[in-house]
Amino acid sequence: MRILHPTRILLIALAITLQFSTNAQQYDGKAIRSWWLAGPDLIARDSSAKPSMAVMQSFFIDTINAIKITKGKPSTLNVHAKNLQWFQYRSGSDIIDFDSIFKKADYASAYALKEIKASADHTAYLALGSDDAVRVWLNGKLVHNMMTARGLNPDDDLIPIQLLKGNNQLIIKVQDVEGAWGFTARFLEKEGLTTMLGKAAASGNIDEAGQLLNAGANINDKGKGIFTPIVSAKLKGRDDMVNLLIAKGAKNEDPASPVILVNKLYDSIKGKPYPAISLLVAQDGKIIYENSFGYADIENKVPATFLTKFRIGSITKQFIASGILKFEEQGKLQLSDKLSKYFPDFPRGNEVTIHHLLTHTSGIHSFTNTDSFYARVSKPVSNEELLNFFKDIPYDFDPGDQLMYNNSGYFLLGYIIEKVSGKKLATYLKETFFDPLQMKNTGIYDNAVKLETEAKGYQKVGNSYQPALNWDMSWAAGAGAMYSTVEDLYKWNEALFAGKILSEKNRHLAFTPVTLNNGQKAPTMSYGYGWAINNYRGQEVIEHSGGLDGFISQLARYPQSNMTIVMLTNVTPPQAEISPNRLAEFYLCQKMDKQKSYSTKASDSTNLADYIGDYNFQTLGLMKITVEENKLFAKLGSQPRFEIFSSGKDEFFWKVVEAKMKFLRNEQGKVISGDFEQGGFKINAPKVN
């Protein structure tokens, strides 16, 4: 079950006072905590009314001139026809938390200010993390601009700052959309530059790697990262980055063994009061890595082990789908059965089939997306009460027209299993799957029953971990109510892919992406019956994740390599690596496709105006491509506009996410469509005007 917490943008301007000697920059690499702040400046008078993206974009573009400072105090800031007064602020943490500073003001701007004093002209490197969009001025000149919606990650933006001898004034502007918001900033010292070099090597950012090397990053060190830059580049299959690093003096170091690499990834958790993560990697039916880090119970200092039981959320859907497909094999139901056969009074139940429920294409509104869900989720609910909670909500779309991830559908499927079998869902799953596979540590979670070796769920609040919202799992039901362990999920996956769970025909159906009414694959995600079907660097990945407050789970199969990866953690947001693809790279990088590095300086002689227009992304809406100041921008639907960068003839990439688009031309040379790719998702988007 997926829990999505929206982010929001706020505008902030900041400036930092640092002292530099002539011969050395005295950076300490720590986040800057002291500011002059001014704000908030509301985008709209009614802070609860969400302005349009066009309005937010217009509000984001402004000019901030140098601020006069008299007797150490900045003069009034005049912006958007308003006068804002400055006040001094010092944060107790690296994050400047605007929710607390500005009392959760939404859709607003704020500013911060200090001088930078340099004893000589030189380049400094400012690393920023923000939620969300950022503009930066130095001495009244715009030096950085990114309109984006993102969560706050330290050092997301690396900005070279050309400081002049004497006083300099730095202003940074960050704009927030929705959700918790804030920022963090620091100047990079030697270790920080080296750490960032490792990140640039992994991501393939050749421009940034060059900047960092010129700034003095240690090419053969890892800084506070996990691997040296050349190892990071090799694991990601970036041969061009490897060649660049070697040419610049890097030692030609190969990655260590996969076991050592995985252990290094979680070294920071060892011996510390952190929540747990349990891991298992298997290949050709044998466990080749298994380990647990951190605590299942922080308060009582109970470490996690391979027997620790975690709530696994939406991985439950695999078991529900398998139960339904078992019934189909036994002739007890058909995938074309109407919902009305099992729930005669369900609205439009004669239009929805079991196939629609399995593939998230029913159009029924997902009950976890209702406004009152979180107010109710900690109290028990019966099947009938939960059914009545959402059944009269209007459909999101006509059945089969779209794919939208839907917990209501899998609750209904779990309920159908009870109706067909005449047993409680927990009993049916135990008798049909858990007992035959000796999955002794797996079941439907019952809040009234205390489990042995159970992981508690946590959330990160400031610098501490606190108990997460405790769902009564009756609300999750067939959509996500199970608990399990890494070893039990390994047993399940091995049995499934060995043909011991479903017939070959039904496995094929389960692993085939659904086709919509229009005959096209769903553009939002690639999903079959209870499994997502993706591709990572040429490796097919048949997988599912799960998430609810305090728990995240991953179960992935790489069929070309007969590899299973299981990852379970008991904290949200995650505090350690929780991507199966990251672990898979340690074992399979030599078998995976190579990846190209990129440069924002790459270009061709093509006129950018050739690409201007709207591109049809089907149910995702139109992507509008525009040009401004000789830069290309892309905006999909109601999402923010992002600059995209050339990586070759007719090829562009996004820096904010790992996505790219190749524009296609007809015989006359006119751009007619774009091949878009992000992760395993691919779509050809025709140009419609």
Describe the structure.
The chain has about 700 residues and is α+β, with helices and mostly antiparallel strands. The protein has an 8-stranded antiparallel beta sheet, with no helix packed on it. A hairpin with a 2-residue loop joins strand 15 (about 275-285) and strand 16 (about 285-295). It is globular and about 80 Å long. The two termini are about 40 Å apart. Mean pLDDT is about 90; it is low at about 1-25.
Total number of β-strand segments? 36
- Described by the principal axes of the CA atoms, the overall outline is globular
Structural class, judged by helices and strands?
Answer: alpha+beta
Largest sheet: 8 strands, antiparallel
Mean pLDDT level: 89
Low-confidence segments, given as residue ranges, are: 1-26
Q: Helix coverage percent of residues? A: 10-25%
Rg (C-alpha, Å): 27 Å
Spatial order of strands in the largest sheet: 29-30-31-32-33-34-35-36
Count of alpha and pi helical runs: 17
- Strand residues, percent: 25-35%
Distance between the termini: 39 Å
